[in-house]
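Regression test case RT-17, inverse folding.

Input:
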């Protein structure tokens, strides 16, 4: 049985022990003997296991005479979708932690902890401090934008902000300052898919930026730099 199916002897022992797959008979020496029906039962077990069902659920499914297969499959699909969402959150959190270490040039455990918390909160909780600026529609839009950002998008966004922080005290009317601000704006336009109205609506909460992780790594220094460059550029026209 083990040789023909690829299932280890230890696994067959365990399935027998928990009552999931009993051999049809045994030899006098205690060796288990499996029939063709037993092989078919094992194939059913392996198929259900591949679909993600737990052994306990598989035992329930195979032992039921009045099973609603469609309902069981639908429940499993919903579980898979929830797991996909969890893994996507974990991916985003790990990317955030990785880039925070690159950005901070050290392991800042306070920021790492807040990043992980960020991805375990509802969007409404994350942006709670900005409710007087943002409605639920805008908050959901921010959450959707964050969810669809690729690894490259996140890296480019954080690099643009990192470069500003490295040159935070340069002359806001200089060519270098304008290039830094333009690079940030290009990344923001890409992230918000050119929705200028939505971007303009975000400027007010950014100016009222609180301590937290909601707009990390944006902070008051970066917002102030962008404001000074914008004013210097407007005055120079």
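Golden output:
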């Amino acid at each position: 049985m083990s040789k023909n199916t690829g299932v280890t002897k230890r696994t067959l022992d365990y399935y027998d022990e928990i009552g999931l797959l009993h051999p049809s008979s045994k030899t006098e020496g205690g060796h288990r003997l499996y029939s063709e029906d037993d092989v078919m039962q094992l194939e059913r077990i392996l198929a259900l296991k591949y679909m993600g069902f737990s052994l306990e659920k598989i035992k329930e499914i195979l032992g039921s005479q009045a099973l609603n297969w469609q309902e069981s499959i639908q429940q499993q699909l919903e579980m898979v979708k929830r797991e996909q969402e969890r893994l996507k959150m974990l991916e985003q959190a790990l990317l955030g932690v990785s880039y925070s270490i690159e950005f901070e040039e050290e392991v800042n455990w306070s920021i790492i902890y807040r990043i992980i918390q960020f991805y375990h909160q509802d969007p409404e909780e994350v942006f709670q401090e900005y409710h007087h600026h943002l409605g639920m529609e805008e908050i959901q839009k921010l959450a959707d934008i964050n969810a669809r950002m690729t690894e490259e998008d996140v890296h480019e966004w954080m690099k643009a902000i990192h470069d500003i922080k490295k040159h935070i005290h340069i002359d806001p009317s200089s060519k270098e300052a304008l290039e830094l601000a333009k690079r940030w704006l290009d990344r923001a336009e890409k992230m918000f898919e050119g929705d200028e109205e939505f971007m303009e609506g975000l400027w007010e909460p950014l100016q009222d930026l609180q301590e937290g992780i909601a707009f990390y790594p944006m902070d008051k220094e970066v917002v102030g730099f962008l404001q000074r460059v914008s004013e210097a550029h407007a005055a120079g026209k």
